[in-house]
Amino acid sequence: MSEPGEFTLTAAGDLMFYGPLAEHMAASGDLLWGLLPLGDALRQGDLLFGNFETPISVARQPAPGAPDKYFSPPGVARALREYGFSVVNLAHNHIYDFGAEGAEATITEMDESGLPHVGIGRNADEAARSVIVMSRNGVPVGFIGYTTAHNALNPKNAYVACFPALERVARDVAALRNEVETVVVSCHTGAQYNPYPAPETRRLARAAIEAGAAVFLGHHPHVPQGCERIGDGLAVYSLGDFSAPVHNEQTRRTFFVRIRIQTGAVRAYELVPCYITDECQTALAEGALRNEIANHLAELTRAIDEGRSDDLHFDTARSRFFSQYVSSWMRELRVGGPRVLLRKFMSLRAYHAQLIGRAIFGKLWSGRRE
Predict the structure, then answer these.
(1) Residue 334 — very low, low, confident or very high, per pLDDT cuts 50/70/90?
(2) CB of 184 within 8 A of CB of 142?
(3) Strand 253-262 vs strand 265-276: parallel, antiparallel, or unpaired?
(4) Long-range pairs of 123-132 with CB within 8 A, sequence gap ≥ 24
(5) Contact between 54 and 70 (Cβ < 8 Å)
(6) Is the Cβ–Cβ distance between 57 and 71 less than 8 Å?
(7) Which one of 25, 36, 167, 203 is most buried, by most CB atoms within 10 A?
């Protein structure tokens, strides 16, 4: 039996209903075919959060220059609401893959389906507007969403996200705490396929929690990252993929988290290991696989607690810099032309400067040693 003011928030990672997963959905006639093996495991809490990482597009006309072209079929928002999702994030790097039509169709379907969402709007202030959701036992919980993804922040677009400047996040969280006791901050940020959080992500989570947030939920890396207790709060740095095509073996092994919260403070949390099958269905991990995933998640958290994760993050990012980042920039140059690449360079932050410096220095140093 729950104590007064206590509830359980369940959070799952990236929901990306495209490609082979969409094909299975169409063949089965079930829009949430990918979640069937989970049964009710995901719905045992009082609130359910997910990162909805595609637009819903009816016209299916990709935006000119969009480096990716991911979309979910119409009807998914209603299916998620009926399944039990309480709120989803829309602040991410794919929200404008299908231009204003895709962003608007997504908002419209979610509003008509009664599925609360955070993260995008007509301007940054509207994008950072919170939503307050009631838990099953009547506890009001406030959600805010941000992203560092440059293609969601272009002010020329009809819909944009809000960049999580530390002062902005602290101000927004403090204002929301005047309305509710529990605040959850969602942020789409970090380096893809890197199992260690970026130092700037950790600073952001600390700023949010020290300003009064109970939980920081990160996504974008597509792979799990560790967790960190900060005072009475909890940072889950990357939820990883959850219902999505398998990008690589790293993204196949995932989890969802159950967080017990009372009077705005995290009392306990549980990571539930899962995996994504070759048929793009998400299932609970069992036996040796469950233990392997649980141990991996525990090691990622231990690296944070022991102060090793920052260096491990840059070591991992540096090793992939030329294969991942440079190839991505070249792809954007081919698809979107010089303007798109220029906009990306103009969005570079101190983190990127540090990464580029380490990558070039590491390359030169290894060349000298050879």
Answers:
(1) low
(2) yes
(3) antiparallel
(4) 123/160, 124/160, 124/161, 124/162, 124/163, 125/162, 127/91, 127/159, 127/160, 127/161, 127/162, 128/162, 128/168, 128/172, 130/172, 130/176, 130/179, 130/183, 131/87, 132/179, 132/180
(5) yes
(6) yes
(7) 25
Q: Which residues contact 203 (CB under 8 A, 6 or more apart)?
A: 166
**pLDDT tens profile 9-49:** 999 999 999 999 999 999 999 999 999 999 999 999 999 99
Q: What is the DSSP string of 109-154?
A: HHHHHT--EES-BSSHHHHT--EEEE-TTS-EEEEEEEE--GGG--
| pTM of model > 0.85 | yes
| Residue reference for tokens 């990160």 | 218
Helices marked H in the chain — which ranges?
19-28, 76-83, 99-113, 124-127, 166-177, 199-210, 249-252, 287-305, 309-319, 326-346, 350-369
Residue 337 has pLDDT above 60, yes or no: yes
Residue type, 50: G
pLDDT digits (tens, 9 = 90+) for 189-244: 999 999 999 999 999 999 999 999 999 999 999 999 999 999 999 999 999 999 99
